[in-house]
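Hi everyone, sorry if this is the wrong subforum. Our group has a chain we'd like a structural model of before ordering constructs, and none of us has done structure prediction before. Sequence below.
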Amino acid sequence: MAFTFPMNYIVNPNGVIPAPHPVESIILDDGVPRPEPVETAKPARRKVRTAPRTSRLNPVQLARRVEVGEQRRAKSRSKLMQAAYRLFAVHGAEAPTIDDVIAEAKVARGTFYNHFKSRDELFRAVGNDVSFAINSVISGAIDEMEDPIERIILAFRLFIRFAVSDAARGWILLRTMPLAGPLNAGAKEFIAAEFEAAFGTGRLREMPMAVAIDMGLGMQIMTIHRVLVEKVGNDHIDLAAGEMAVALGLDPAEARTLASIPIEEDDARAAAAQAYSFPVEKG
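Answer:
Right subforum, don't worry. Here is the predicted structure as tokens:
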């Protein structure tokens, strides 16, 4: 039989004597005390504070790292835009899906969303680049013309010619222009300035500027579609340009005369327009 006595005491056959240290003992049948260990609190570990990690790169190296990151980001964005362009060239009116673009570009889905929130945002980016390239060529062709109405009619004819000279360009513009109209700020400013100058001649009937621009862009979009689908030629483009001017209020005879002025096949303009079928990288 075993008994437990209070701490500070050890019981043995010779009596009870104080224990020098706090200990709780258990007496077994053989009369020999067995000290029972007392748990003591472990000392708390001190947290070692470490200084924040700092880059060992010097400012030149840091700047180079940022530059490389920007180059990689620009390259992956370009790959996505090139892939969309190639798919439009193959599928035409059947706009590619995000999965189509990812597979064609050979990038991860996360890479796509790092650059674009949606498929339409990607299409607008490609369309913006195409439109900017075409408008750059057109502005050089009409800069020296004094009559703003003649400039508008020629710009209409050239834009459609350049748009459909590469089917992929045409389909991309058809996909994006109905959603956004002029695809960049430069194009919007150019169109607004030209129409304002044209109305200032007094040869067009009065109407809100927005209505006039919508009429011009709407005719442009539908003419691009007809050329791509029905394979009509430049004669149809010129006819549409003349009728657009008539709708704006220009005298029919003058409108058709301006729309039938021969367009010189300037080698530089043709080369500039043809070169921009998008800088596609193989592989």
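For your construct planning: The chain has eleven helices and five strands. The first strand starts at residue 3 and ends at 4.
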